Amino acid sequence: MLFAEETSIFAKRVRTPSAFALTPAQSLAAQDVLKSLSSGGVCVLRANPGMGRSTVLRHVHQTTGGAFVGMRQFIDTLMLHRPDAIEQAFVELVEEAFAHNDVVVLDDLHLVTAITNDFQYERRGLLDAALEATLAQGRRMIFGYDAGHAPLPVFIRAHTTKIGDFTAADFEAIARACLSSETAERLDHAQIHRSAPALNAYQIARACRHFARANRPSTEEFVGWLTAHNLTSNVEIQEVQPVSFADLKGMDDVIEALEAKIALPFENSALAAQLNLKPKRGVLLAGPPGTGKTTIGRALAHRLKGRFFLIDGTVIAGTGDFHESVSEIFEAAKKNAPAVIFIDDTDVIFEDNNKGFYRYLLTMMDGLESASAERVCVMMTAMDIASLPPAMLRSGRIELWLETRLPDAEAREAILREKLARLPQPIAGADIALLAAASRNLTGADLKAVIEDGKLGFAYDQTTGRTLRAVEDYFLEAIEAVRENRRRYSRSKPPRMTETVKFGF
What we know:
50% of the residues lie in helices and 10% in strands. It is of the alpha/beta class. The protein folds into four domains: 5-162, P-loop containing nucleotide triphosphate hydrolases (Rossmann fold), CATH 3.40.50.300; 168-230; 237-403, Rossmann fold; 409-489, Orthogonal Bundle (Helicase, Ruva Protein, domain 3), CATH 1.10.8. It is elongated.
C-alpha cells in the first residue's frame, strides 16, 4: 500500500454539499454523470479544453463522495518509480484509492494516454491491460477525458457524456461568479455570446477579471476586449496593405452585395440575432487580373481582423500532406465565427490538377452546413472560371457569385484623381480626363503601375537636367508601356505560378 491507512490522501470522505458553482451546460453534464453513476458502472466526461471538465468532476465528487485522483497525485506517485513505469504507478494509485472508497474519479486520463499511446513509448498498450484488469472487477469509476475516444477498456464499458457548447446563460453564470452584481447586471450577455460564441470558461473569466475593478464597463467594451485578446487570424494584419471597400472604384454593386450579405451579419449582431441573419456560406469573386479581388481580401482582413483566415498557395505548395493545415484553418474559423476563410487564386491552385486539395475543400465546405459552423463564409477568388471544378460551382456551395470588372471611364478618372491628389505639383495637375480616356481597358492595378512609372520618368528627367515635358506625356508613355507588356505576355504565355507569396497583399 502506498500510504499508511491513517495518513492516506484517499481516506473515505464524508459527503458535503457541493461548493462548486456550475454554468447551465456544466450542470447538465454533471446531472447526466450522476444519473449514470447511480446505476453503477463506468462514466466518461469529455470536454474541449477550458470548458470546465475538472470543475464538473469536483462537483460530482463532492456529491458522491469517494476519491478524486488528479494529475498532481499521479505525478507524485510516478516520482517513486522509473519514468517509464507509468502503468505500475497508475495501478498503485487506483488500488490505494479503492482501498478506502467505492467510487474513484480520475481526471485528465488523456494526459496519460498521450504518452502511453506514443509509438516511441516502449510499453505501448500496457496501460490498456492495466485498465482492463481494474475495470473487470466491476468497480465504479468516473474518467475525465479531452475530446476523442477513451482507451478501449473504458470506451466499451462507459457511459459517455460531454459538456455542451456554452450559451448566453453560461456566459452570464461565469460573469456573475467573477464580477460584482451591479457590473454583471449591466452587461448584455446575449450580445457578448453572439459576438464570441466559442470562447471557453478560462477566456470569459479572464475578461471578467480584467474588468473586475473597472468603472462600469459597457457591453461594447467587454466585447472589444474579448475580440482583441481571444480571436486569432492566421494573417498578420500589420503586414497587409491598408485598404477598404472605398478603394474599389466603379464596382458599387459588388460593394453593396459584400456589405449586405457578408459584413452586415458580422457587424450588427443584434439585428443578425433578431432576423437570424447568416453570411453567405460560399462566395466566388471572379474577374480578370488586377480588377480588385485581392483588394477585397485586404479590406476584409482589416475590417474583420481576428475573424479573417487565409488559404493561398503557400498553404498548399511544398507539402503532400496539407490536410492538417487546411483543417486547422477551418477549425480556427469555426471557433472565431462569424468568420471569413479567404482562398486567393483558387483557379491557380486547381490548375495544377490538385485533386487532393479540391476534394478536401469540398468536404470542408460541406461541413459548414452544420448549425455549429453556419456562420463561416468561404470566399474564393478566380481569374479563369473554367479552371474550377464543376462540383465547386454547383448550387449550395457557391451562394453568391460576384464579378469584378475593368473600370469604366468614370471609375478610371476616380482612381487617377485619388492617386494624383496625393502628389505635389506639377504632377498633381495632370489632365485626368485625358489620361482616363487613354487608359481604356486598363485595370486598377495597371493604373497604379502607370502612376508609379510616370513619377519615375518625371523624376529621372528632373534629376538629370533634361528638359521637362508636359506631365501628361510621362503618364501616356507609361500607359503605352503597360500595353506593350500585355502584348508580350499574350505572345509568350508563360506558365502560371501555383505558389504565391503569403497574402501577397
